[in-house]
Here is the input.
Amino acid sequence: MTTEPLTIGRRIRHFRAEAGLTLDALGDAAGAAPSQLSQIENGRREPRLSLLQRIADALGVPLTDLLTEDAPTPRDALEIELERAQRRPLYAALGLPSVKVSQKLPMPVLESLVGLHGELARRESESIATPEQARRANTAVRLGMQARDNHLAEIEEVAEEMVRRAGYEGGALTHRMVTVMAEQLGFELVHVGDLPPTTRTVTDLEHRRIYLPSSSIPGGHGLRSLALQAIAHRVLGHERPATYEAFLGQRNEINYFAAACLMPRFVAGPWLEARKHDRDLAIEDFRDAFGVTHEAAARRFTNLATVVLGIRCHFLRVQEDGSLYRGYENDGFLLRADVTGAIEGQPVCRWFGARSAFTSHDRTTEWYQYTDTPAGTYWCSTQAGATASGDFTVTIGVPFAQSKWFRGRDTTTRRTSTCPDDACCRRPAAADTARWGEAAWPSARMRQHVFGPLPTGAFPGVDQTDVYEFLTRHAPEDAAQG
Ligand SMILES: [Zn+2]
Here is the structure.
């Protein structure tokens, strides 16, 4: 029998009440003890089919009337739902008492409790990605990229085909070409001033429109990059991500696609090879040749360095407070990691070029430095920049043996780092501790959280109500209807 004992019990009770029979009377007629019947009615006991048949006969209803899955009345449906909800492990885990479900329970109380249980279950299934889960997922994506030398050949190919079809031959990819790329996919780029605050772009799949902000986000993503990322979801056939890691994986892919369009391998690869041949590699030149930000150029360099140039390297973006905002390495460069393996938010050695560059007076050119570390000697090139939320540096570094290909290799700046040993730079000098240990009381500035908690709904971190309202506001009239 597939019908739940609780539902069967409620149906028996319903028909017994309709027939005006007491438990004793039904027990006599069906040949069962009243206590047994009571347990059956409460769903605590599963009746044998033979007994069910006798009960049906005694009540004057067909057996099938007792076995249908519908609750006999709306009130019974609520009572059954409350009984069920109170028996779930989710509720048991709260350690709260169960409410006795009886006919004395007022209807509004019943409705309220069933509503709360439903919401509890909904929130559980739409659970929150904790910062720790987010960090683990991010680490998994980063290590996956490290294992592939930060190169995704299949996305390189898609990007190359698309930019070629839009007429790109070299240099900076123009905004016009990006528009053509969207058009070739059947999409129109629409610039608006009222995008929902939780989004960077919104795509209307029905009307084939990609909504973009009307100006680029300061210190971050240029408009071309935003448009290319929105296009990437379509080109790469992304489905709604089922997990937070899948969501981050898609983010990684759309960023990759945008970079691969702005600095296509078939142009950027030979460009970098020529500079390597001349022993004059410089991220600042790469940046200027393709009209992108310094960070975009540096990150793109890591996509091509190993696969195209045969150079292993590391990339760091470091905040003014000395913490790592984003990093990558496949050259053995040592970075601090937390217990989840995440490197983001960890302090960076104060002797690294990534931090020395903050003190550089001339920020128009790159800061060059050799650093002796427990993992060997590295050379690096760092550029300092500023955003509304503070200064930052972008660093590309390579093992000593590879420095010969780069401009700035002749620097005489050389530092020693023994990090992650705390004695390197994490402990104040003994004399300073003696002087200030008892007299200093700094008040901490709240750190910018790299991975705050995000709801793992269909679109993590996005306010869907805002998005639907936005789309309704901008959707063209459906003139073709009727
Ligand atoms: Zn250090």
Notes: The radius of gyration is 33 Å. The chain is about 45% helix and 15% strand.
